[in-house]
Amino acid sequence: MSVKIQTVAKAIPPYTRSTAEILPFLDIWLAGQEDRFIRKVKKIFENAGVDKRYSIMGPEEVFTKTSFEEKNNIYMREAIVLGRRCMQSALDKAGLKGTDIDYIITVSCTGIMIPSLDAYLINELQLRQDITRLPVTEMGCAAGVSGIIYAKKMLEANPGKRAAVIAVESPTATFQLEDYSMANVVSAAIFGDGAACVILSSHGEDNGPEIIAEEMYHFYDADYLMGFHLSNTGLKMVLDIEVPEKIESHFGDIVHPFLAKNNLTIAEVDHLIFHPGGKKIINLVEELFRNMGKKLDDTKEILRLYGNMSSVTVLYVLERFMEKPLPKGDKGLMLSFGPGFSAQRILLQW
């Protein structure tokens, strides 16, 4: 059963600042710290490869001491707004109504909502009362691709159906004002907020790139690399310095056997739809691909324009490829990494 990605649409939060505009707020946040440390933090922001980012709140709110409850309430309110906007936009792009969707999968890791976002979207967009819901949490940056994998499995078993995957993230809601660790600094420097919706279809007449194959890859004994620690002040970022090294050591095992199962080599893949986890990881992967003539220009551009929006980011990269007039038969490799530690892979054919 053929499953295709019919459309992708994004929703951008209301607040935006360039990195240059954020630097004065760092002076306020870092007041009282050693000058050497302040210079180091500013250099991390300036060299992160992020020119601009969007947020569900202004920087004044981000850098104000508030409780976990207050920040999470903002996250809940804005997640519903962004989720509705990106799903409506995706439906409009595809020429569909809300009642045309059979499965709804929502992914997020930067706040806590019970009921989950999908329940609110059913009400907001008057989706079908018999729609099947799947909220996906705690998978971090990998969840955008994970959600597509789950949707593909559902549609593969159910011809003539459609699924919507909605990713909404607000890493700025997890910023810890009194945490001066490198994990908190680096995450503040690279992350931004955003939302995206992907509509998939197992209707034979629908257009879009076909999902040829999909797989997850799980690293053993690497759960310490990335995640969140739930503290009294909120979700505290866990981000180990070993992440790029671990990805490099496993990269061949992640990519080549997966492609070989589909009788392909990396040289035969036309497009890399790669999650922009950060400048270091992008440079690492680009170096690994350099001899094969592969580039990550779209990935770098999304990082520059929006920052890393966790699960959402790779979907912004995918949207760029969906908007290009790509030749029939072109193949694309989607790849993202997340807590666990894990890698998620999807092979597309236009």
TrEMBL record:
<dbReference type="InterPro" id="IPR016039">
    <property type="entry name" value="Thiolase-like"/>
</dbReference>
<protein>
    <submittedName>
        <fullName>Type III polyketide synthase</fullName>
    </submittedName>
</protein>
<feature type="domain" description="Chalcone/stilbene synthase N-terminal">
    <location>
        <begin position="38"/>
        <end position="202"/>
    </location>
</feature>
<dbReference type="Pfam" id="PF02797">
    <property type="entry name" value="Chal_sti_synt_C"/>
</dbReference>
<keyword id="KW-0012">Acyltransferase</keyword>
<dbReference type="InterPro" id="IPR011141">
    <property type="entry name" value="Polyketide_synthase_type-III"/>
</dbReference>
<dbReference type="InterPro" id="IPR012328">
    <property type="entry name" value="Chalcone/stilbene_synt_C"/>
</dbReference>
<keyword id="KW-0808">Transferase</keyword>
<dbReference type="Pfam" id="PF00195">
    <property type="entry name" value="Chal_sti_synt_N"/>
</dbReference>
<dbReference type="InterPro" id="IPR001099">
    <property type="entry name" value="Chalcone/stilbene_synt_N"/>
</dbReference>
<feature type="domain" description="Chalcone/stilbene synthase C-terminal">
    <location>
        <begin position="223"/>
        <end position="348"/>
    </location>
</feature>
<comment type="similarity">
    <text>Belongs to the thiolase-like superfamily. Chalcone/stilbene synthases family.</text>
</comment>
